[in-house]
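Feature request, filed as a ticket because there's no other form

It would be nice if the structure record came with a short human-readable summary line next to the tokens. Right now we just get the raw output. Example of a typical job, pasted below so the devs can see what we mean:
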Amino acid sequence: MVTTFDTGCYLLNGNTIVPDDAEAQALLASKGVNATKEQAKENTIAYGILKAHNTSGNMDKLCVKFDKLTSHDITYVGIIQTARASGLEKFPIPYVLTNCHNSLCAVGGTINEDDHVFGLTAAQKYGGIYVPPHQAVIHQYAREMLASSGSMILGSDSHTRYGALGTMAIGEGGPELVKQLLGQTYDVDMPGVVAIYLEGTPKKGVGPQDVALAIIGKVFASGYVKNKVMEFVGPGVKNLSADFRIGVDVMTTETTCLSSIWQTDEAIKEFYDIHGRIGEYKELKPGDVAYYDGLVKVDLDTLNPMIAMPFHPSNVYEIDEVNRNTADILADVEKRAKVSFGDSVEFSLQDKIKNGKFMVDQGIIAGCAGGGFENICAAADILKGHFIGNDRFTLSVYPASTPIFMEVVKNGAAAAILESGAILKTAFCGPCFGAGDTPSNNAFSIRHSTRNFPNREGSKVQNGQVASVALMDARSIAATAANKGVLTPATAFDGEFNKYTYHFDSEIYKNRVFDSHGVADPSVELQLGPNIKDWPKMSALPENLVLKVVSEIHDPVTTTDELIPSGETSSYRSNPLGLAEFTLSRKDPAYVGLAKEVRAAQDALVDGKDPIEAVNELGDVMAVIGKEFADVNNSNVGFGSTIFAVKPGDGSAREQAASCQKVLGGWANIANEYATKRYRSNLINWGMLPFIIDAGELPFKNKDYIFFPGIRNAVINKSETIKAYAVADGKMKEFTLKLGNLTDDERQIILDGCLINFNRVK
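Raw output as currently delivered:
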């Protein structure tokens, strides 16, 4: 059972919860506690780590410098290209470039391997670390080789989470890593800290994904931990192995929290010892009296195998409940799909019910969430002596690193998996973002991976294709596989789980990974393949803006996968103009054409030509604006596009969700709220205005124009509200927007037009 508290809470000696209610002070006094709430807030693990990394001298307004950075092969090229444009000469801190996303080199000819060669030469030139394809997924390498207790790591992947090892890690868009490479800081208000209080012990068959999904299902919709730090504490922590904690921790991203951190103990010390890095361990625990802004209580004893049904990790049920009410729950999934897909594709799951049983088509155990040593060994124990059959059901298992792969070969787990008919593959993130094991049309896939958004598995609704992904723990996936595709919880497994000892072979990395040990070699020439392009020039924010609304999305949440699809499009992330062609292609195929049409006006303006000749309809728009604002002319106006979405930006940290809009002429987003800080930061770093509009009836519609008079001065003057006018049918309708909190640097980035311009000016 997972419960949330309506108030903040004190935690005494790591075990006793005292809700911050009317009786709190008397209860604290009776226990001899005289610390104030503000003093107690400073006793969280998170506060101590943030204080140690804050350079502002003000704990309300943090300016954080990280200890290490990490990226993979669909983010590091853009990051390094951006940093180069701003004067990068050397990586100032350890920076790891892994190659686990486009590692199959299966799309677009040479371009994937060209990116890898770029990464290797960049690591040599600037003093970084290069992990070749198939050696490890980004987060497993970080756990094995980078994490250290009390440190902070910034990664350009949203699942950058190493809290179980005592490392506060944050996943952000590429520009935030660029700032660190240039000696700048990660600026954020002091986040709230929410205790995740664990008690009890998971029952046999319940794995880390089950615990994670139970928490996500409880907190996501309410935003209980949004942009906050989740701090795992309580007596139940000691009952979880290091691998188990890691498996829960990586999924905290799906709650929309900012970061995570856990209390550490002998199990984590042993993890560091196994990996030959015992000196990186430090005991972390909250002070005797710690105050949390909220508390999530997790009774591990009561949790059962879970499943997150399509199309979100928060759409959570117990597997037994799905088996009891299959038809009703599948009908609900179909109803949810209608919101995202409309009538663009035929979607039904009722044929998955056969002889009263829910039959699935595919199982995947993979990546940073599922590919851990204990998950694979547990799956092997369940599969041992069983066969997945020769019908539709398939099972693929991807160890998260070559050292894990080697160990499961040595201990026999690999043999048990292969004997069952399953396939064992190398370290690869593809199944998590649609670049590997794409199911057949209308298939249902169960995966121990991180996300199950629409199209995340690789199908293309715009081409009439659709498949479904549900998230489950490796143990229940194995139980389902042993039952030849009949949905089965791992608690039905009546055998025993063996105790496997992990032996980490460090020679694997020593023999293959390039590690400069921080020594740059300026003589190395970067090798740029033909797909690797520089960013196009971007204009500074003009005095006034005229923007056309080119997409209007009313889904409750819009994911970054919908803003810029993953899968094969990821191969073009080194080519800003090429990638931009895919923007919103799976959500609003008309977007790219409409954005380009209005961008032609700005292009004409930059070239000293008449924008109205480039976009004829602007003549009528400017005539209406001119009636009230006669001083607006080509010398003080800019043209471009904007989109409206209710709550955009859930999911991946990919900066391209924003940069592609900017490349196509986007100047702003308008939203009721932003799903994550990282997406809002991506907008800002690409010089886009992150407008907020109150929920309710919109004063504009798709293809209307919006006029923002004096927008540059409004940003400079830190105006709380922004005046705007919807221009349609020969009339202007005034309304207001907000920009929310912006740091001085963020305002300047918007004024300069993007982070690249900002750094050039500096």
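Something like this underneath would help us a lot:
Residues 409 and 415 are 7 Å apart (CA to CA).
The chain is about 30% helix and 20% strand.
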